[in-house]
Design brief:
By secondary structure, the chain is an alpha/beta fold. It contains 15 helices and 15 strands. The radius of gyration is 22 Å and the shape is globular.
Length: about 425
């Protein structure tokens, strides 16, 4: 069974959550979380999962896929007497593990279901807590592969009651080299289970893994590899030494933007950008794998609460950060992988909001950005540099670039202003 949906072209009225037959405890939590209509991936996935079918779903970031698999699983668990670990969710990064953990806590608020996240970077106390839960049983475990395998090797993990296995961001996990780890983890869990796989892309290696671990799965494809409709995209073509002056100009001249997220390709570059910006006057911080988990949570907490206005990050956050109302995304470097562009810009315009995403393209990155434009099937408008920065390298412009909306944010010789 294969279902393909393009939410940008599907103008039908979306389903309300009370149409799925979810129990009152979940509907009350959904109401408190201000969810109303189901997204396309939720509308297609929830009934299939409730019916017990295996599923492979291709859905980009920001489409509501976490609730798509969490809600039907919670609904099953509230109607059954579960003992031991019922559901295992495997994810590529600790940020995504924490994000899913928080959403499960919100959706299960009026139930007795409990959840534990297991990820690297903790201390001995964390290990003992995880060991206790893995031995005695929690309802839902959200884990990164490496840390979970460390526990599995000790021989005390009890997965004999497991009924649901979920792989989220499966393509990212395979890109990070977790293929054998995933196969290893699966060898510890019962063959009789429901398996769900969610991925932003569907390359051959994902198909191969799906064939090995899923049984007669249904398939859903939701608007693959396209930024959300609410994202206004633009790009500056410039030389590398023009990037920092432009970044400073954008931050300084757009003081109404309360949250600005800057992506760079490497943690070395993140440190370099942070050093060159005035942290005190512009409320700037940075985050990368150099920080331990406590430090990273503190940095994200400050950004979420608007204590920090500008956050500089590596791609580790492109899929794992869940903060609403990010006003501006800046790709300081063009992503190496065209798919990562979709995930970076997907951090803004979440939950039907509008957002702005700008990319800096130096002369060596033009080819990479053209591949991105091919992937998203549109030309991103090229914005003239401010006059004080001089001319950038040549880019082959279209004679009629696609409009970014009724209002043009990009006036010649000026920095970005938003209505």
């Amino acid at each position: 069974m294969h279902t393909e949906v393009n939410p940008q072209k599907d103008s039908r009225t979306r389903m309300n959550f009370n149409e799925f037959g979810l129990n009152e405890q979940l509907l009350e939590a959904i109401s408190y979380m201000n969810f109303s209509e189901a997204t396309p991936v939720q509308e297609k996935a929830i009934p299939l999962i409730m019916n017990g079918q295996d599923l492979i779903a291709c859905a980009q970031t920001g489409t509501g896929k976490t609730a798509a698999f969490v809600l039907p699983i919670l609904n099953k668990m509230t109607s059954e007497n579960t003992h031991g670990i019922n559901t295992l969710i495997i994810v590529p990064t600790r940020e995504l593990a924490l994000q899913i953990d928080q959403q499960i806590q919100g959706l299960s608020y009026f139930t007795s279901i409990n959840v534990l996240s297991i990820y690297g970077g903790g201390n001995g106390e964390d290990w003992e807590t995880e060991k206790k839960v893995l031995t005695q049983g929690a309802d839902i475990i959200v884990a990164t592969p490496g840390k979970l395998i460390s526990h599995l090797k000790m021989g005390y993990v009890k997965f004999d009651k497991l009924k649901h296995l979920i792989l989220d961001e499966a393509d990212k996990m395979l890109d990070m080299g977790f293929y054998e780890d995933i196969k290893n983890i699966i060898s510890f869990i019962p063959e009789q289970r429901q398996t769900l796989m969610f991925s932003a892309t569907m390359p051959p290696k994902i198909r191969k893994l799906a064939e090995q671990i899923l049984k007669q799965p249904s398939e859903i494809n939701i608007a693959m590899s396209k930024p959300a409709e609410g994202v206004k995209q633009g790009a500056f073509v410039l030389y590398e030494n023009q990037k920092m002056p432009l970044l400073k100009s954008l931050i300084k001249s757009n003081d109404k933007f309360q949250r600005i997220l800057v992506f760079s390709s490497t943690k070395i570059k993140v440190r370099e950008i942070a050093r060159n910006l005035d942290r005190r006057s512009d409320s700037i911080d940075s985050i990368s794998s150099d920080l331990d988990q406590k430090e990273r949570e503190e940095v994200l907490g400050n950004f979420k609460s608007k204590k920090t206005r500008v956050l500089i990050a590596t791609d580790i956050l492109s899929r794992g950060i869940d903060i609403k109302d990010i006003d501006l995304i800046i790709n300081y470097d063009v992503p190496h992988d065209a798919e990562d562009y979709v995930h970076r810009v997907g951090r803004t315009a979440r939950a039907k909001a509008n957002g702005l995403a700008l990319t800096f393209i130096n002369d060596r990155e033009i080819g990479k950005f053209k591949r991105i434009e091919k992937l998203i099937e549109r030309e991103v408008q090229k914005i003239p540099l401010p006059e004080k920065l001089g001319q950038g390298p040549e880019y082959k412009y279209s004679t009629r670039p696609e409009s970014l909306g009724k209002k043009n944010y990009f006036k010649k010789g000026k920095t970005v202003k938003r209505r």
